[in-house]
Amino acid sequence: MAAKKGKKALGDKAKGGGAGRTPGLGRVNGHHQENGMENMTLFEVVKMGKSATQSVVDDWIEAYKHDRDIALLDLINFFIQCSGCKGAVSPEMFRHMQNSEIIRKMTEEFDEDSGDYPLTMSGPQWKKFRISFCDFIAVLVRQCQYSIIYDEYMMDTVISLLTGLSDSQVRAFRHTSTLAAMKLMTALVNVALNLSINMDNTQRQYEAERNKVVAKRANDRLELLLQKRKELQENQDEIENMMNAIFKGVFVHRYRDAIAEIRAVCIEEIGVWMKLYSDAFLNDSYLKYVGWTMHDKQGEVRLKCLTALQGLFYSRELGARLELFTSRFKDRIVSMTLDKEYDVAVQAVKLLTLVLQSSDEVLTAEDCESIYHLVYSAHRPIAVSAGEFLFKKLFSHRDPEEEGLPRRGRQSLNGSLIKTTVFFFLESELHEHGAYLVDSLWDCASELLKDWETMISLLLDEPMSGEEALTDRQETALVEIMLCAIRQACECHPPVGRGTGKRVLSAKEKKTQLDDRTRITEMFAVALPLLLAKYCVDIDKVTNLLQIPKYFDLDIYTTGRLEKHLDALLRQIWEVQDKHTDTEVLEACSTTYHALCNEEFTIFNRVDIARSQLLDELVDKFNRLLEDFLQEGEEPDEDDAYQVLSTLKKISAFHNAHDLSKWDLFTSNYRLLNTGLQNGDMPEQIVIHAMQCTHYIILWHLAKVSDGSSLKGDMVNLRKQMRAFCLMCQRYLNSINNAVKEQAFTILCDLLMIFSHQIMSSGREQLEPLVYTPDSSLQADLLNFILDQVFIDQDDDNNSTDGQQDEEASKIEALHKRRNLLAAYCKLIIYNVVEMNTAADIFKQYMRYYNDYGDIIKDTLSKTRQIDKVQCAKTLVLSLQALFNEMLSELGFNVDRSTSAFCGIKELARRFSLTFGLDQLKTREAIAMLHKDGIEFAFKEPSPQGQGSPPLNLAFLDILSEFSSKLIRQDRRSVHMYLERFMTVQMALQREDCWLPLISYRNSLQAGGDDDTMSVVSGISSRGSTRSKKSKPATSSKRKLPEGDWNPNPFKSEENSCSSSDAVWMNREQNVQTPVMMHSPHLTSTVLRDPKKMRPEDSYTPAFTMPTEQHSHHTQVTWMLTQRQQAEARQQQERVSMHYAKMRNHIRRGSGLMEDDEEPIVEDVMMSSEDRLEDINEGMDFDTIDIDLPASKNRRERTELKPDYFDPSSIMDDSVLNVSMF
């Protein structure tokens, strides 16, 4: 006790007489009594956040000194209330009960209705509360560090309570107490660190005093320093005991807790301890926990591990002490750069960058290469982090001889670094991703990438003696990197595929953008003609160089007096187009002219004159060559064909971006195409480019007509030209050349879309004469092209080249082309340009070509259903009928329903059925029409084996039964009666195998009978609603019924239920009437149902009704069938009742009620991912099953809460469990 008193005296002295204040003055139990905050608990004060944490803690300390039991009780209740518990610890409980008993009592009083507690609640108030909660603990320990924490009462009680709560089965207690214990530990680490510093200072003072000569030595001071050091050592030992208790009692158990948030808290704080007090914590005994937890299954926890390690590697001194840890867990960190969680991958790359800075020898070449390729990642944060790693690795190290190099130019340091960038780009072998590489390096190496002066010097200047010149391949890569850097500087946003779009630039960024654009224009206005002259014959280089002018500030040509350089550029562009016939180069020339021909700038006239001269030469040359080429009686040679083709390619390329209407090219191109059809020997490339050029002619003509700048007769002329060209393309669809057919098909699809009824939208009704609707022959030709060219096996495509790799690439390219062709045709279906029933031939291919075109067919089906549900349903059944007919033609009339062909059709029908979703009322009419068409098809053809045998297509009813579950009860009755119109008495009595499709289909229509909601709506939803303790009002979950439509007795007379004269499709006109079978009696419950609990479909009249006429001469037969069906119905009712009783019993006694609620799972294999939930669940209202559970069993976490239920195998990968640390 003497020692304790000494400590307290020391603390009081350090606090400056704080104990001299009157205890509790102006406050009660540490709570404010002003500003309307009387008698508020600590929790309420901290939650409100109106008082400074320092003053709240000071109030509590004064209360503790006045009466430590009452103050400590307040603190205990603070932790209990912060956990969300409504109970409170009373003074009697505090005095007479153990911690375990108190925790058990609080657990019983915990509010079971809410799964949330303060640490997990959303909103700014609760986020602020978490911060205030942590601050309160830190300030409490800091204010008590000189006296109270050593009194062997306050800290012992708090640590004991938090340790007990952290072992609770209640997640709220466990989470809150773990966070509190970890923050308490962090505060104690700070205290221990201060003590350690004081001890070192005291030791140094003691040594300095003792080393003095005896005459100058102060023995009293030595004694005082010795006593102080001893006291500090005792305090240090006591703090270490407290930290030990928290670490072993809380951390060791909770770092592998079942809840990810708790594990993350532990790992975050241990990182803080190791950084704050590295002498005590930065060793293998503590690092192993971080290493193990890097294998955690939750990304949140893995992320905390990486951020904790980053804090250590930021310091070179600490990083040097992590060699053993790094060697052991380096491979794991490298593998985390490919983590499925992007945030984790980003931090893993950043951590490895810090590791690289601390030591170059840790990461091997293989480790670095695995990070290098991430600069091409589509996720920009990962790519930028990898770019920083690459920059640190390759560009940050400078040799001593490089220090004196010039700042710019070929011999500069940047010149060497730019060469290194080029070498890396070539070694990565991803030459089409230069924009991605530049974007990845932009944040850390923008100064290097903007050194265009050095890049130009490397391309134009001759190498110095002894310097190795760039190869042609390296120069091509440098030109590409230079263009990408120019684009990045001028557009200031990431390349396509990386980023969410253009962002708003700040004023500083806009100024930088303008400055860069000005510098680019001034530099390349002079250099670009020289570069084009040097690389004039190189396709790749010229194509990239010609894209630079579109980033120019064209005013600088005038203000900077650079007109002569503009003339030089125009001459070089003319030279390039004259020497090249490659489409990419010609299109680049056309784009450059388009960028320079801007009427807003004074250089427009100069450029326009040059462009007109160029086009005049091209058109004159083309007309002259065409006359010679088409002369009668002469066989055109290859040289003439090449000249015509090269000129036509140039005209087509320029016509893409420039209006050439004044040269009247339609006549010559149409003549060329017509001659090709008549003679049949026209080279395919000439035909393709003539079609393309004519297509551009019509589009430019349409643009002039649309904006009103055309003459009076232009619309009539355009209409004639467009229709004549469409007819020409239709004739070319029958060409023997696939490339020509593909071009004709593509252009036809484009023209049909452009000149469809959509052309009149947006107030353009004056264009109505231009609307062109394809006739049946054109629609048939387009569909035949799709079936012949798209739906083919991959091996049938003969476009592949030699070599396995080239062959694979060729197959991918061919598949991409076929997908584009199919998408173009499907667009015609979606926009109602061609008849929707033509889609039947597309839909029937869904199963066979699912891998290649499944997504396109799904989207087409979804869009057509949105346009017209009924017509879409008729199209679906039409596709199934087509497949059925194909099967009959292949396998013969005797259908074996076990064959793969029949099973495939049935599976396709099942998938089609799933696309209708769960809302039967929305698709009611569509499903009815589908069944009608299917029944008619099944009985359409008589049996080829004569009377008494089933109809030829009867097996189709087995396929049609896949859609029976989509019928509501009233429609099932009506469909069943419609089916009976096609049946004879003999058919109804047949039980042979060949009649099984009819039997199964009838059963599918009768299944569910009076209560089909269990299988349609409620049966699916019942699993997802077991948690609700309070049942909803009956009306809240039911669809509101239209007034006057509800029939309280749906099983009234046949006349009332089925006598409507407004039948949708039941009134068929037949010369010979088939007998009508009586419909099966429906199961009715002996318990009257409450009208409020009727199913939604009870309130609707059938989508179709049955005429009331009966045939008396079949009365006895129908009576016999009725008796048999009634007996079957009674047996079915008994089975349903027994099954329902068992199901209810299982629900009451099932063991799964303690587990997390399971969400309804809806299978939908046909819907596109965007529309899946919207189309399936729209308008659904689920009933619920109310299940009464014991109060203590109604929390979501109950299955997780077992005594030390924290099995590492449930949290970490198996690779961690059997591996030792070091």
Automatic annotation (TrEMBL):
Q: Where is the composition biased (Low complexity)?
A: 1015-1025
Please list the residue ranges annotated as the SCD domain: 251-336
Coiled coil segments of this chain: 192-245
Q: Which UniProt keywords apply?
A: Cell cycle, Cell division, Chromosome, Chromosome partition, Coiled coil, Nucleus
GO molecular function term, any single one: chromatin binding
Q: Name one Pfam family in it.
A: HEAT_SCC3-SA
Localization in the cell: Nucleus; Chromosome; Chromosome, Centromere
Q: Pull one GO CC term from this UniProt entry.
A: chromosome, centromeric region
Question: In terms of domain of life, where is this protein from?
Answer: Eukaryota
Region span, Disordered: 1-33, 1007-1061
Tagged with keyword Cell cycle: yes
Q: Name one GO biological process term.
A: cell division
Q: Which SUPFAM superfamilies match?
A: ARM repeat (SSF48371)
Main localization category: nucleus
Complex formation: Part of the cohesin complex which is composed of a heterodimer between a SMC1 protein (SMC1A or SMC1B) and SMC3, which are attached via their hinge domain, and RAD21 which link them at their heads, and one STAG protein.
| Family that this chain belongs to | Belongs to the SCC3 family.
Free-text function comment from the UniProt entry: Component of cohesin complex, a complex required for the cohesion of sister chromatids after DNA replication. The cohesin complex apparently forms a large proteinaceous ring within which sister chromatids can be trapped. At anaphase, the complex is cleaved and dissociates from chromatin, allowing sister chromatids to segregate.
Provide the protein name: Cohesin subunit SA
Organism this protein belongs to = Sander lucioperca (Pike-perch)
